[in-house]
Amino acid sequence: MVVTKENGAVNGSRKTSPQDIADALRDRIRTGTLKAGDRLPTQAKLAEEFGVERGTVRQALLSLQRDGLLNHISRGSPPRVAEGSAAPVPPVAQPQPQPSMVALAPRLAEAFGEPHVRVDVVSYTAETLMNAVMEPIRQIHEGRLRPESIDVRILLPSSEINLAFPVPVESDDERDRDRLHRRWLAQRNAQGQVLRHNLGALRQSHGIDVRVTFRALPFTTPVKLYLLNGTEALLAYYTLERAQLTFDADTEGRAAGAERLEPVEAYDVGGLTAALFSFTDGSSPRDTGFVEESQKWFAALWETITTDLTLS
């Protein structure tokens, strides 16, 4: 491979990203090296030039198409430079964040369209993921999605720590803190078990290689993060709110008296309604950087201070 100005990063300290390729091609268009109506080289030739896989080139081309610099991209002939592309292109409007329970399911369904699916999660419980993953599972049963493997890694708070939330609003009663902890732990374990069961069932029904692994965080995470196939990051903040938390006999223990089922006024978070912000690798330098740093953050947690987690 001939090392050019564009692909020199391959042999440097950083791997060439879709954004690097898009920026290089954008410069060629705006300087007139590539004129309106010109065809770009094939994806194979661009991949060879920049020293990357074709998928990386395709992400770069899709970014340029969204910016209005290229005509329709297909798997056939290379795209042409769009008319008027030498003029500055206004930034593409970013989608508004939506509640997690609305936003996550379609993003998971798109991620499950890849042959090898990887989902990395940092969360307070598995509630949102447990609900959202039912959409790609449904599409798999309908034959619309056919992944070969699914690898899900989830970081949840350890049962051994003192949670930052939920906490009683006014009461210093340690019994209430203990009740709130048991309530959260029951939810964490039940939701994790359902998630693992629903995904694991695809192994028998569709022959998909499925792995669902949990590890325990030594702290209460103030955010939840979903990393999809290493190319998209979805982030939401856990915002504390005052809430009346109720209990049931299973959580409290069937031998407990009825008085122990009294609700507790507490500061807690609502994960399903938390606004989910999306960042996509290759769409902008900011988004690319966020996805890369988020993946590094997750990997560092997974490999260092977290411990094995058993759902029981």
Summary of the model, kept short:
Residues 88-98 have a biased composition (Pro residues). The protein is of the alpha+beta class and 312 residues long.
Descriptive terms for the model:
single chain; 312 residues; alpha+beta; Arc Repressor Mutant, subunit A; Endonuclease, Chain A; 2 domains; 8-stranded mixed sheet; 3-stranded antiparallel sheet; 37% helix; 20% strand; elongated; transcription; DNA binding; DNA-binding transcription factor activity; GntR family transcriptional regulator
SSE map:
Layout: H1 18-30, H2 43-50, H3 54-66, E1 98-99, H4 100-111, E2 116-122, H5 127-132, H6 134-141, E3 149-157, E4 167-168, H7 174-206, E5 209-217, E6 223-228, E7 232-237, E8 240-245, H8 249-252, E9 264-269, E10 275-280, H9 285-303, E11 307-308
Parallel strand pairs: 2-3, 3-5
Antiparallel strand pairs: 1-10, 2-6, 4-9, 5-11, 6-7, 7-10, 8-9
Helix pairs in contact: 1-3, 2-3, 4-6, 6-7
Describe the structure.
The strands form two sheets. This protein has an eight-stranded mixed beta sheet with strand order 1-10-7-6-2-3-5-11, with helices on both faces. The N terminus is likely disordered. Helices cover 37% and strands 20% of the residues. The chain has nine helices and eleven strands. The chain folds into two domains: 64 residues, Arc Repressor Mutant, subunit A; 211 residues, 2-Layer Sandwich (Endonuclease, Chain A), CATH 3.30.870. The chain is an alpha+beta fold.
